[in-house]
């Protein structure tokens, strides 16, 4: 067979094997395969001294040792691995097929279950089924994939080449399912709200813009579901949650992906204290169910999730870590200058928050609820009855990252409209506009409520020890590969 242009030597050799398979009447790309059992289940049920045990498994060849009339294969499915023993004596009618197998091929095998002299649980295959021929070889001779950029771009290889990656994403799926069960068990109903919106609202962020051809109008990928979920409170749905995507046309980093997963919930007749309790109970339940104890390594930090968690006011933490009284604006501005912040043209509250972010957030390793933010930072939040300078809001920090944000929701339409107008000043770049319909909804009466948003990607990072958000997003956004 003549080598085709643009095809490497190894790919060419494998294509020739596909052709040979076809010649001997075998489809290199298989079909339905019934009866396969997860490798982990086979290992779990194996009894060393029991005869007559059989097994059937399917997966990818990740190790192949050919010693002539005997070939040992390590087969990997998405739960684990098992060894197949292929002997010419048992597979004489299929031996040409066996000799055409390569690393990376997907096969099925069934036969007697036993153990080798070295103690390896092994399926002594009596039949082999070709399921899919890999015409590109694995990343290297060990079948691993270590190049970070290639791992993210070729997640379809990363998942089977690096078992810990598959395990992390299986854990992610299990944790999200646990979140749903937790909330449903407390009477919350899951809902879906629009991901394409005519107004970019619910948060201060720059949106992605798209265009609806039939209606001939620009639309925005949502930056938050908040205002639609609150409309449901107005409609009488008292406990709702949504787990779905938000989109923010902003930077990328190890903690930011423009497309990210959020869980938001709202509960009528609740407040931010109830939201704190729900958050601590929810994350605590995930740690108990999915992690090996309350202390979890996260980069160079060890996060201790032992409850109860710390709850401190914004002002207390500013005093503790920045050595500033929140009411002493001269001292706060002096601290800003000391930190190298250009505070000259900043509003007072912006300077306070800049100092807070620079001095406090990096110190919050164990779970900490930061409560009672300055009201000027919280346009959607109810004022504190104890001190109107502050809002009934908290942010949960873990591992120096913001993980959750919650309010006692503002439901006074006049105050909300006034706050929206203040919020919109200077936000031309974000294309934020007044959501008049939301104000109309509030005029019909929204019950007092608590609202909570949890960043799922960051939470999974923490609970699996992944220090980059790209390690918990199956297909993270990456720069285009430049030609040449």
Please provide a written account of the structure.
The protein has 14 helices and 18 strands. The protein is an alpha+beta fold. The chain has an eight-stranded mixed β-sheet with strand order 6-10-11-18-17-16-15-14, sandwiched between helices. Strands 1-2-3-5-4 form a five-stranded mixed barrel. Helix 5 (155-161) crosses helix 6 (163-185), helix 6 (163-185) packs across helix 8 (272-290) and helix 10 crosses helix 11 (348-359). The mean pLDDT is 93.
Q: How would you summarize the topology of this molecule?
A:
Blueprint: H1 9-23, H2 39-45, E1 54-66, E2 70-76, E3 81-87, H3 95-99, E4 106-115, E5 121-132, H4 148-153, H5 155-161, H6 163-185, E6 189-190, E7 196-197, E8 208-212, E9 217-221, H7 226-234, E10 239-247, E11 259-268, H8 272-290, E12 295-298, E13 301-304, E14 310-313, H9 314-322, H10 329-338, H11 348-359, E15 368-374, E16 390-398, E17 401-408, H12 413-424, H13 436-443, E18 449-455, H14 456-464
Parallel strand pairs: 3-5, 6-10, 14-15
Antiparallel strand pairs: 1-2, 1-4, 2-3, 4-5, 7-9, 8-9, 10-11, 11-18, 12-13, 15-16, 16-17, 17-18
Helix pairs in contact: 5-6, 6-8, 10-11, 12-13
């Amino acid at each position: 067979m003549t080598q085709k242009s643009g095809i490497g030597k190894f790919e060419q050799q494998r294509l020739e094997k596909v052709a040979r398979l076809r010649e001997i009447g075998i489809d290199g790309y298989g079909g339905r395969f019934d009866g396969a059992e997860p490798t982990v289940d086979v290992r779990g049920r194996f009894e060393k001294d029991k005869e007559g045990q059989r097994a059937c498994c399917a997966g990818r060849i990740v190790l192949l040792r050919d010693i002539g009339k005997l070939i040992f294969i390590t087969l990997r499915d998405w739960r684990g691995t098992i060894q197949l023993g292929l002997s010419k004596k048992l597979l004489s009618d299929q031996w040409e097929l066996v000799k055409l197998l390569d690393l990376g091929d997907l096969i099925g095998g069934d036969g007697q279950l036993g153990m080798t002299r070295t103690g390896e649980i092994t399926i002594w295959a009596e039949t082999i089924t070709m399921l899919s021929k890999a015409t590109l070889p694995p990343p290297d001779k060990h079948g691993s994939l270590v190049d970070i950029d290639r791992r993210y771009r070729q997640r379809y290889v990363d998942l089977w080449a690096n078992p810990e990656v598959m395990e992390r994403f299986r854990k992610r799926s299990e944790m999200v399912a646990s979140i749903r069960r937790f909330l449903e068990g407390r009477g919350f109903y899951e809902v879906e709200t629009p991901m394409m919106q005519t107004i970019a609202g619910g948060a201060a962020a720059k949106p992605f813009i798209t265009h609806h051809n039939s209606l001939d109008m620009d639309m925005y990928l949502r930056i938050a579901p908040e205002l639609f979920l609150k409309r449901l409170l107005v409609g009488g749905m008292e406990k709702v949650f949504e787990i779905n995507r938000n989109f923010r046309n902003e930077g990328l980093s190890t903690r930011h992906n423009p497309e990210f997963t959020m869980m938001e919930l709202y509960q009528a007749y609740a407040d931010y204290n109830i939201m704190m309790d729900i958050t601590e109970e929810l994350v605590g339940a995930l740690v108990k169910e999915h992690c090996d104890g309350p202390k979890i390594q996260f980069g160079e930090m060890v996060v201790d999730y032992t409850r109860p968690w710390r709850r401190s006011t914004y002002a207390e933490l500013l005093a503790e870590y920045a050595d500033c009284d929140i009411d002493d604006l001269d001292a706060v501005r002096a601290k800003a200058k000391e930190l190298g912040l250009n505070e000259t043209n900043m509003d007072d509250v912006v300077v306070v928050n800049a100092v807070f972010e620079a001095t406090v957030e990096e110190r919050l390793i164990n779970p900490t609820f930061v409560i009672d933010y300055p009201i000027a930072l919280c346009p959607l939040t109810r004022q504190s009855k104890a001190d109107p300078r502050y809002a009934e809001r908290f942010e949960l920090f873990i591992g120096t990252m913001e993980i959750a944000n919650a309010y006692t929701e503002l439901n006074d339409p006049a105050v909300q409209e006034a706050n929206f107008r203040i919020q919109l000043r200077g936000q031309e770049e974000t294309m934020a506009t007044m959501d008049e319909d939301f104000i109309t909804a509030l005029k019909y009466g929204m019950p007092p409520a608590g609202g909570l948003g949890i960043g799922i990607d960051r939470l999974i990072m923490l609970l699996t020890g992944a220090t980059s958000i790209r390690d918990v997003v199956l297909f993270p956004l990456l720069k285009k590969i430049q030609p040449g």
